[in-house]
Amino acid sequence: MLTDVIEFRIDRRSGVSTYVQIIQQVKQAMRLGLLNPGDRLPSAREVVEATAINPNTVLKAYRELERDGLAQGRRGLGTFVTKSLSSEATTGDDAPLRQELSGWMDRAQQSGLVVEDVDALYVAVRDEHYPAEERS
Amino acid sequence: MNSLTATAVGKRYRARWAVRDCGFAIPEGKVVALVGPNGAGKSTLLRMAAGLSRPTTGELKVFGTPVQGRIHPDVAFLAQERPLYHDLTVRELVRLCAAMNDRWSTERVREVLGLQAGVDHNAKVGSLSGGGRTQVAIALALGRLPRLLLLDEPLADLDPLARDETLRIIMTEVADRGTTVVMSSHLLSDLHEVCDHILLIDEGRVQVDGDIQEVLARHRILVGPAAGESTVEGTLISATRTERQSTLLLREAEPAPRGWASTEPDLESLVMGYLRASRERRNSAQHK
Amino acid sequence: MIWASWRQQRLQLITLLGLLVVGVGAIALLRSSMLDSITSSQLTACVTQPLQDCAVPEAAKAFQEEWSNPLDMARLLIICVPALIGVFIGAPLFARELEQGTYVLAFTQSVSRTRWMLSKLVIALVPALVVLIALQYLVTWWLSAAGTLGPLKNGAFTALNFGIAHASPVGYALFAFALGTFLGVVSRRTLVAMTAGLGAFVVVRFALSGLVNSLVPTQRVEGTPDRQLTVHEDGSLVLADGYLDTAGQPVPEDEVNALIQACKTTPAGAGTPESQQEFLACLPKSGLAKQYADVIGESQAWQVHLADVAIFGGLAVLLLAGTAWVLRRQN
């Protein structure tokens, strides 16, 4: 029996549809190295037992991941991660980019920025570098 | 194959049409939200699909077989009134239903009842709370091992915890057996998280029918200057207007003209738009 | 399905069983106590002979005073049980399902409506009939022990004796039961079905009680006008009687009265034996040649019972067909 690697948290108030939330959470876990090639995604039944959402939605999200080439369904076994989204730059607490960002946060904190200021700055800078239409 | 189809179905009670000219097809494996205001004809439609009442016009088919005066063997029905024999214990009621069915799984009923907190098998059905009775009734419906599960207001008298338990049981059923589920509610919020297909009816007529994502993708909410409404192209469903601004719900809209903001509606605003339109039609019909 | 129907009618079935047990016990006790009383009063011989031949008329009278009430109660019980079956078993059978909406549960299981209905009918009706027949047998057993000292001396055609004999009680019970179920599915209210069922049963039961006699062929008994016909005494059912003229045609009643009146006013003067003889001799002379009576003999009583069962049983079948029709159309 494979143990569950991740558990989905469905936010019913977010306005983001359930299947998009599942896709986002799988990708997030892959980026952070929590899900690696060969890992099995929780079965629809496991997700349903944990969150009372529609299993068709889970399957639809998995099909979307398959279309993106990130996962593959194997008949009777489940859906498995086939690709790695994690990189040196994002995995682990000692990744260089993460450390640089951490240093930046320290300086922001010292200069008295509150969390809303930090978020606003981050979003503004992010949008300069990654214009909206390029993001998926 | 479609699990449930309706062709020009109408039901008249004396002078009033409870359901009129309803046509839809529900593909197998869908979880359908049958929504509409109170008195829209949801219960009438479900009772006809369960073979409890005959349509005045048209025909309903379950897995390709016309429904004629009795329930299809692959259908289980949860009635809104939760009719159960109150003087029997839960255990006796389960045995009674077992005796009345050719295909039956007492194990499945026990399993479902086991997932629900606080249903004592030796308690008289009449001594259970409204929620408890609903849970027993759902367990009995699942005992028939249905391929199509018709649930009339399944969540109406459940507290939040029981609601979550119940949805979990129904969704597990879908995951395990690929059961098609049609759930009615007058509260969209009860259902829209778990359903992938919507059947909106009002005044006994189908207003919206389809896969929720597809339905949403076909619609647009456009917000723009009140003066520029004529530049917008598409089928107008409903509109709210202030002196300067118009908010329009459109089907098959063309790209928004300059000065208009276009977004995909969420299910809530889509349903509200259709119900508002239906009410306006009704009011204008009455004023004539 | 049998368990299901049994479980749902447990209360009625247990009540029926209780009624049977109490009935058996009570009747057996009463009967043996009555037999003791017959022996101790030296009435044994009077049980089989007409009362006027009884050697101890005083004791016979005392016995009748003591036992006529209990025996009448037993007869009334058999008269009432069909009505009770209709009210407490027939009427609630489907009315309660319709009233409480539980028929929806039954109609959404795989058992067909017809089978569901039949199994309920059978489980409700058969035990009720068995208990009724058992009680009827017991009461008859008790009554026959009293013989001519008891109500049987009044003949098979008196209302109480007729109503508890042969297959008639079963016919009434079938009718009462079917009437109850039919009113139940039509009214969809248990209480309405029970009360209306009782009322309708009583009305129909008495309204039709005369009809049955006209369905069985009668025999014409004739005799001379000077002696009363024996059929008036032997327990036969007399449906018509009067006088025939010389051509053998019945004489209309007012004419008979006028002729009798004319014969009474003969010159010999009233009250004397001569006047009585003269009166009797006058009758044939004035055209009242013979007396006649159209009768059904006591030995033909079974035919009347069969006609009775046919009428009430036929009505029951119609009502049950109506019940089935209404239930199948239920929506």
UniProtKB/TrEMBL annotation, chain A:
The keyword Transcription regulation applies. Residues 16-84 form the HTH gntR-type domain. InterPro entries: Tscrpt_reg_HTH_GntR (IPR000524), WH-like_DNA-bd_sf (IPR036388), WH_DNA-bd_sf (IPR036390). It comes from the Bacteria. Keywords: DNA-binding, Transcription, Transcription regulation. SMART domains: HTH_GNTR. SUPFAM superfamilies: Winged helix' DNA-binding domain. GO terms for molecular function: DNA binding; DNA-binding transcription factor activity. Signal peptide: none annotated. This is GntR family transcriptional regulator. It comes from Lentzea alba.
TrEMBL record, chain B:
One of its GO terms (molecular function) is ATP binding. Pfam families: ABC_tran. InterPro entries: AAA+_ATPase, ABC_transporter-like_ATP-bd, P-loop_NTPase. Keywords: ATP-binding, Nucleotide-binding, Transport. It comes from the Bacteria. Residues 4-228 form the ABC transporter domain. PROSITE patterns: ABC_TRANSPORTER_2 (PS50893). Belongs to the ABC transporter superfamily. This is ABC transporter ATP-binding protein. It comes from Lentzea alba. The lineage of its organism: Bacteria, Bacillati, Actinomycetota, Actinomycetes, Pseudonocardiales.
Automatic annotation (TrEMBL), chain C:
The chain crosses the membrane at residues 12-30, 73-95, 116-139, 159-183, 190-208, 309-327. Keywords: Membrane, Transmembrane, Transmembrane helix. This is ABC transporter permease. One of its GO terms (molecular function) is ABC-type transporter activity. It comes from the Bacteria. GO terms for cellular component: plasma membrane. The keyword S-adenosyl-L-methionine does not apply. It holds the Pfam family ABC2_membrane_2.
